[in-house]
TrEMBL record:
Organism of origin: Saltatorellus ferox
UniProt domain AAA: residue ranges: 12-171
InterPro entries hit by this protein: AAA_dom, MinD_FleN, P-loop_NTPase, ParA/MinD_ATPase
Positions of ATP binding: K16, G17, G18, V19, G20, K21, T22, T23
Pfam families, A to Z: AAA_31 (PF13614)
The protein's name in its UniProt record: Septum site-determining protein MinD
Keywords on record: ATP-binding, Nucleotide-binding
Region described as Disordered: spans on this chain: 256-282
Entry GO CC: cytoplasmic side of plasma membrane; cytosol
GO molecular function: ATP binding; ATP hydrolysis activity
C-alpha cells in the first residue's frame, strides 16, 4: 500500500546520473496523463532538479523547498504541464536540499500525502545513487523503476542500487518492492532484453532477487531533439518507436492506476478541484 493514502507512488531511479531517469519519468507521466489519468510528477532530484526544463516550463517560485520551510502551501507550488500533468518542482543548486534530514524527508512525504487524494498516480523523478533520500523514497514506493543503459558502468551502478535497496529493506524491516528495470539507450528490443537479463542473473545469484524488465527505450536522435526543444516525445503526433516503447512501459502501470471513471477528459475543470490556483504557463 502506498505511503500516500490510496494513491499509488512509483519511483523512477537509477544508480548513475545521465542514464535517462528524468526523460523516463517525465514522458511516462505524460503518457499516462494523455490517457486521462490525473498524474502528479514530483521532482525528487531535490538538489539538482530539472523536470521543469524537460517540459520547457518557466517555473518561478515557490518550489518544494519553500513549502518545506512552511513559507507556502504545497498546492501553491504545483504547475500544470503537457497533457494536463501536474508538476511539483524542486529547486536547483540549493545545497540544503541535496540531502534531507530524516525529519524533512518525513515532512516532504506528509506534504505529498496532503495532495495525493487528488491524483490517480504519483511519479517521483529521483536523484541518482544510493543516498538516504533515494532509499527513503524507494521504501515508500509501490513500484520502483531502475533506469540503466547497456554501458557496464551504468549496469554496475544499477546492481549497486538494487543491492543497497535490498540491504536497506532488511535493516529497516521494510518490504521494498523488487525494482523493475528499464533499459534506455538500447540499440533494439534484443539488446534491451539482454541487458535486463544480465542484471537479473547477477541479482538472482547474489541477492536472491529477480528484477523483471519493465521495458526499454532506443538511443534516439528524436528523443534528443525533443529534449532540446523541451517537449516530451510522448506527445509526438506520429506513432514513433520511442512512443510505442514508453506506452509499453506505461501499460505496466495501468492496472495500478486506472483512470477516473467519470471524467476521462483532461479538459474537465472539476477534475482536480482542490488544486487551485494552477498558474497558466505559456
Ligand atoms: N533514449 C535516449 N536517446 C537519446 N538521448 C537520450 C535518451 N534518453 C535520455 N537522453 C538524453 O540524455 C540526457 C540525460 O537524460 P536525463 O533523463 O536527464 O538523465 P538523468 O535524469 O538520469 O540524469 C538528456 O539530454 C536526454 O535528452
Ligand atoms: Mg534527472
Amino acid at each position: 500500500m502506498s505511503a500516500f493514502k490510496k494513491t499509488p507512488f512509483v519511483l523512477v531511479t537509477g544508480g548513475k546520473g545521465g542514464v535517462g531517469k528524468t526523460t523516463v519519468a517525465g514522458n511516462l507521466g505524460v503518457e499516462l496523463a494523455r490517457t486521462g489519468r490525473r498524474v502528479l510528477l514530483v521532482d525528487l532530484d531535490l538538489g539538482l532538479s530539472n523536470l521543469d526544463v524537460l517540459f520547457g516550463l518557466s517555473v518561478g517560485e515557490p518550489r518544494i523547498d519553500r513549502a518545506l520551510a512552511g513559507e507556502c502551501s504545497v498546492q501553491e507550488c504545483i504547475v500544470e504541464g503537457p497533457a494536463g500533468i501536474h508538476l511539483l518542482p524542486a529547486s536547483s543548486g540549493e545545497e540544503s536540499m541535496a540531502q534531507l534530514s530524516s525529519d524533512r524527508r518525513a515532512k516532504l512525504a506528509a506534504l505529498i500525502e496532503e495532495i495525493a487524494p487528488s491524483y490517480d498516480l504519483i511519479i517521483g523523478d529521483s536523484a541518482a545513487g544510493i543516498g538516504p533520500d533515494v532509499l527513503g523514497f524507494a521504501s515508500v514506493a509501490d513500484r520502483v523503476f531502475i533506469v540503466t543503459t547497456p554501458e557496464l558502468a551504468a549496469l554496475t551502478d544499477a546492481y549497486g542500487l538494487i543491492k543497497a535497496l535490498d540491504q536497506f529493506g532488511a535493516r529497516t524491516a521494510v518490504d521494498i518492492p523488487t525494482p523493475e528495470v528499464i533499459v534506455n539507450h538500447a540499440s533494439g528490443v534484443e539488446e534491451g532484453k539482454a541487458v535486463a537479463s544480465k542484471l537479473r542473473t547477477i541479482c538472482e545469484r547474489f541477492l536472491a532477487r529477480s528484477p523483471r524488465q519493465a521495458g526499454w527505450l532506443p538511443r534516439s536522435v528524436h528523443i534528443e531533439r525533443c529534449s532540446s526543444h523541451q517537449s516530451p516525445f510522448a506527445l509526438t503526433p506520429k506513432r514513433a518507436l520511442e512512443q510505442l516503447c514508453i506506452s509499453q512501459i506505461a501499460s505496466r502501470l495501468t492496472h495500478l492506476a486506472p483512470p477516473p471513471p467519470a471524467s476521462p477528459s483532461r479538459s474537465n475543470p472539476d477534475l482536480i478541484p482542490s488544486l487551485t490556483p494552477v498558474p497558466r504557463l505559456g
